[in-house]
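Objective 1b: paired records.
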Amino acid sequence: MRTAYVDESEPGGGLDHTVYVMAAVLIDAESESEARTAVQRATPKRMRKLHWYEALGGQRLTWLGLLTRAVSIVVVRYDGRPARTERRRRRCIERLVWELEQRDVGALVFESRSRVRDAGDVSMLESLRDRGIGKAIRHEHVRGSDEPLLALADIACGAHSRGLLESRPQDALVVVQ
């Protein structure tokens, strides 16, 4: 079974209300432990979790190699009219869940943002299930410091935003409005 680890980014520090990036890094169950260990080893001692935004340029380039542990990477980018963060996020989640369902993903792990915001995601996922999307996908929210594999999604978001995410045949970039 594949698990998708998901994180998001608001390029422009949240000041650009027309863009939102959400990345899912798909990992096979038998590869999770090895990938988790690789992320932990790459995390600088000064960081409680590996985080793209806090990294030095050279670290970022090194971390790109961690993405080779992914079966595939799906990036959904909202590029549209100005909208509040949660609306842009919902548009990305809607398409992301559909994309993951096509790739036989059985579990979805989001980085937790807060109890209230996590509840908004759960509500969105339930709404999608009611429409027949993502019925077989389990989901959970986990703190980034508790699940190193969430860092891979963070790296994918950061690399996409900087134009550094290498395009591979098994990966996908989807733009929604």
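Objective 1b, second protein:
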Amino acid sequence: MVRLIDLDNTREMLELLALQTAAYKKEAELVGLADIPPLLQSPQSVRDSGEIYYGCFMEEGLAGAVSLKQEQPSLLAAPLGPVRLHICRLMVQPGLFRRGIASTLLRHVLQLANAEGLDTAVLAVSTNAPAMALYGRFGFQTIRQHPAIGGLTLNEMVAKSAVQAAPAEKDGSL
């Protein structure tokens, strides 16, 4: 079952931070980087992030989570880009890999984005083969690559919304 995580609920926050620590330690090993920012977060920094967290709950508790933020185009950027739903984190308990949890969360995110007519964006480390394969299966395409710390490359990936905005009706009004 996927539902919002209550960041003000101490039990849910501690469960989320334990999941995040376990998942990102595994990713840090996978990509060869020791200190990645999610390993350094506190409950307050999670709350202050402005991200919305959804969790995939199973009998074992919190099996996986995804955090989202709606990306507003910068007024300083030219040209203004489209507003997107940005996946900030997608994490699964390492002992529960390959059980469809990440796919369940990703389907939920894409349904939310499609309901609003938003494209979905994510940054993925190019050497994280499982993540790259997962996003590829869901139609994400790399639109840019960015150099990152430790000689890594981040792929900026986007999945287009399945919902196309309807053209405005012409009724003579402005």
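The radius of gyration is 17 Å. Residues 25 and 39 are 7 Å apart (CA to CA).
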